């Protein structure tokens, strides 16, 4: 895989990821934030299951794993997406994008090795 392919892929992924907030802003004008969040998480779950099936990695989970996954999903996925959708009903997509920047800045600095 060439370096240029990797860089072009990364730029395209970042552009699609950046359009996420704008798309949610448009969608919350037509759907309830709870419905939108439910649909997004359900769709993502189906995609993950299909990928695991394709890779042959799908297996039955233990109750302890279900509990850990459930708690992690609730607090790091459901709450984040729900509050994002609810917040976008009250503000612009630009303001929401600006709230994400301070969170990503420390991550980018850590990836640079603190340079």
Present the secondary structure layout.
Layout: H1 3-28, H2 33-55, H3 63-88, H4 93-111
Helix pairs in contact: 1-3, 1-4, 2-3
What does this molecule look like?
With 115 residues, the chain is mainly α. The protein is built from four helices and no strands. The protein has helices at 3-28, 33-55, 63-88, 93-111. Helix 2 crosses helix 3 (63-88). It is globular and about 40 Å long. The mean pLDDT is 86.
Q: Count the helices. How many?
A: 4
Order of helices and strands: HHHH
How far apart, in Å, are the first and last alpha carbons?
28 Å
Indicate the low-confidence ranges by residue numbers.
Answer: none
Strand content: under 5%
Indicate the mean pLDDT: 86
User: Overall 3D geometry?
Assistant: globular
Main beta-sheet strand count, sense and barrel state: none
What is the CA-based Rg, rounded?
17 Å
**Helix percentage:** over 70%
Overall strand count: 0
Helix/strand/pairing category:
mainly alpha
């Amino acid at each position: 895989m060439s370096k240029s392919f990797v860089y072009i892929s990364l730029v395209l992924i970042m552009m699609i990821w950046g359009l996420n907030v704008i798309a949610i802003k448009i969608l919350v004008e037509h759907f309830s934030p709870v419905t939108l969040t439910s649909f997004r998480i359900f769709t993502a779950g189906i995609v993950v299951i299909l990928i695991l099936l394709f890779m042959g990695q799908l297996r039955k989970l233990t109750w302890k794993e279900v509990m850990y996954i459930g708690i992690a999903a609730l607090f790091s996925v459901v709450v984040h997406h729900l509050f994002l959708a609810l917040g976008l009903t009250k503000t612009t997509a630009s303001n929401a994008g600006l709230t994400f920047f301070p969170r990503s800045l420390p991550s980018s600095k850590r990836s640079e090795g603190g340079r």
